[in-house]
Amino acid sequence: MAVVKLKERERVDTRGRIVAAASRLFDRDGMDGVTVDAIASEARIGKPTVDSHFDGKDDIAIALLIEADRKALDAIALLPKEGMSVAEALDAAAWMLLDSKSPHPDCVRAFLCRLFGVEVMAPELTDYLAALDDSIRALFERLLARPGMRRALPAETLVLSFRSMHMGLLTQWLIEGAPYESARILTRRQSGLLAKGLAL
Q1: Looking at the domain that runs over 57-197, which CATH code has it been given?
Q2: What pLDDT sits at residue 32?
Q3: What residues does the HTH tetR-type domain cover (predicted)?
Q4: Which terminal residue of the chain has fewer beta carbons within 10 Å of its beta carbon, N or C?
Q5: Residue 180 backbone zone (phi > 0: left; psi -120 to 50: alpha; other: beta)
C-alpha cells in the first residue's frame, strides 16, 4: 500500500516538474517556440518520461491552464464578498478564471481546440470541468442563500448558463488580447443579463 502511494506521489511530482518547466519556457519563448525536448531538458528528465505523462506539448499546456484555474476556483470559493451584487459576483468569478489564463494565451488556444475538437475528452480535462461546475454550483448556492433570493432555475441550468457564457467570453478574450477592454465590457453585460434573466 505504501509503495503504491509513493509511486503515485512520484508521478504527481514528475508531472508538476514538467508543467513548471513548460510554464517557465512558455513565459520566455512562447508556446510555439518551445519543444517537448526543451521542456524535458528544463525539467531535467528524459523526453521518454515526458512522453509517458503527456501526449504532447498541447497536453502539457492544458495541464498548465488547469493548474492555474484550480487556484482561481479556490478564489471563487470566497465569493460573493460582502456587498457584492449577484452580477458583480458572477463578473468577478468569470474574471478570476480569465485572469488565471492571462500569462498563457497560446495555451488557451490549445485548451479550446482540445475542448471542442475531440470526441472524447482526456480524463484530466473531464475532471477539471467537473471541478469548475462544482465551484460555480457552490457560488450559485451561496448567492441563492441570501435573504430575499428565490430559485428561478435548477442549479444545473445555472451552472450550464455560466459555463456557456464563460466559454464565449474566453473566446472573445483570446481573440481580443490585452488589455481586454471589450471582454471586460461584455463580461459585465453578460453577468448582468445572466443575473437578471435568472431572476436573481
Answers
A1: 1.10.357
A2: 92
A3: 12-72
A4: N
A5: left
Cell 435548477 -> residue: 154
Spatial separation of the C-alpha atoms in residues 128 and 156, rounded to whole Å: 17
CB-based contact 85:178 (threshold 8 Å): no
Q: Which residues of the chain have pLDDT under 70?
A: 1-4, 120, 197-200
CA distance 149 to 158: 14
Cα distances (angstroms) measured from residue 182 to each of 35, 168, 174, 190: 33, 13, 11, 12
Q: pLDDT per residue over 126-143, tens digit each?
A: 888 899 999 999 998 888
Dihedral (CA of 193, 194, 195, 196) sign: positive
